[in-house]
């Protein structure tokens, strides 16, 4: 049984209408296609003011029974997971559904033997190896909550996340082979655990490259030793539909990243439904999403969505340009990839390497191309369409967020209308709308506004871990009875949405979401910094670059030395992905009379637009604007 497969524009319109007229009936029908241990009593309860959203109330299930067990009879011998290593001369690995099931059960038994119980939080800090997929599914099997931290984050950032969720175990690798680099992953965990992560009792270490690591006998255990000889079956824990499945940290407009909480039932139903329809996946297809499981894209569309749908999903360890810029296309050819899903930043980076790379490979199996994470510019869209899709593959530009759990606005394969740089129409069940600054809904088409969702959908955020008030504040307090996305959007005459970008202090650098306050806090850790302001500016490859304005004290004589140190501090506090591209030393920052930094002006200057700064006469210190303009870096 499978969730509804929409195969025509007419069917989409019909499904959309039904999902709006009677959302409970619509989602109830989708949910019935899964294996439940106990059926739900009520489909939905909601109150956006609190917020309190519950789907499939009283239902009991285990998501891994739906990802694995239920496929065994029919396609136990078919490939569930293909792992493509960083080094192309190394052989790839495959797991059939049966093999993946056994590996997950073995790992689940090992976790249980190490004291892991339902509700415990387990942190993953791992490169893209199959053990990461196995590990998170093993958590889900026994009701432990996984919190995956992207392995590019620093020890400090990792420690913050471990502490926020009071994780009892960290699962990591020894090293991470990434391009030509070999990154000492376990050493970062060691460092993080020195920063007061008292809740951590065990570190489970997967041997990836096999090089030497430091060992703390009372705490560290080898994955292979803990898993060996464990039974290959493990009873799946019955989870309430609203029990927490995972926490995933993401950046917001305030300094501290927040733990977005997703729950079992609704997330399962929606990721499967959206996966099948957006990618028009057909049994036997090979699907590849290039994201990292450290982000929501990897959770929903490498692991859960595809496995729920019984698909063959590829996870790749490497980077797009190693050993050369043909790597993606080589993998597509090798595994006869049918659906390929990546980020605009990767497309732009590969486009810059020249048109010849894709021509060396056979890409004729491709059916659907996807993009995610940031707006795609027209040039990259056309390159993707022509050079990769050869003009015959629809491009699904998928707009969604960590908080939405699944794709919200996107084309459905070649079924719904596609227009370059437009994400398109909302998926069934997604009541997207635009509002003006006062919160009035903008009803007509051919309009621009703030993007909101006015009705719950199954995979939506339930809370921010340990701080429900923050969840209310950030997403549900701006506009009454609406979930506010933080994005601005335009709706064209046909109702298609185009995402313009964030309207809050969040920037999007190479598809990575970052809070400007977070970067400022990191910069401010430098002892010579008095104050800083960070904004995004248009960047050819990254989409947005990071521009930092910094006021320093008199101790700074050598600006180059200072800049290098700032990069180091940011790398230490957050990770290399947050390193500013430009650092301008300034004597003052433009402020309002109430002392707030006028980022609007700083954004303009950073983007090279120094002419139209608007009215600056109301500033507390209009004189600094001239100086900032003069020193602007291009
Ligand atoms: C923000 C969410 C969910 C996937 C990965 C990012 C931006 C996401 C698109 C798109 C334009 C997009 C938005 C959104 N974004 N997809 N197709 N077109 N912008 O998840 O880290 O939670 O970031 O990414 O600004 O709010 P995330």
Outline the structure in words.
There is one protein chain. The chain contains 19 helices and 31 strands. The strands form eight sheets. It has an eight-stranded mixed beta sheet, with helices on both faces. The protein has a seven-stranded mixed beta sheet with strand order 5-4-17-16-18-19-20, sandwiched between helices. It is globular, with a radius of gyration of 24 Å. It is 31% helix and 24% strand. With 634 residues, the protein is α/β, with parallel strands linked by helices. The protein starts with 8 loop residues before the first helix and ends with a helix. Bound molecules: 5'-O-[(S)-butoxy(hydroxy)phosphoryl]adenosine (WT7). Residues 250, 295-297, 372-375, 397-402, 423, 485-487, 499, 501-502, 508, 513 line the site of 5'-O-[(S)-butoxy(hydroxy)phosphoryl]adenosine (WT7). The site of 5'-O-[(S)-butoxy(hydroxy)phosphoryl]adenosine has 23 residues, from helix 10, strand 20, strand 25 and strand 26.
Keywords:
alpha/beta; 19 helices; 634 residues; 31 strands; binds 5'-O-[(S)-butoxy(hydroxy)phosphoryl]adenosine
How helix-rich are the residues, as a percent range?
A: 25-40%
Structural class: alpha/beta
First and last CA, distance: 56 Å
Strand count: 31
Poorly predicted runs of 5 or more residues: none
Oligomeric state of the chains in view: single chain
- Integer average pLDDT: 96
What's this entry about, in short?
This protein has 19 helices and 31 strands. The protein is an alpha/beta fold and 634 residues long.
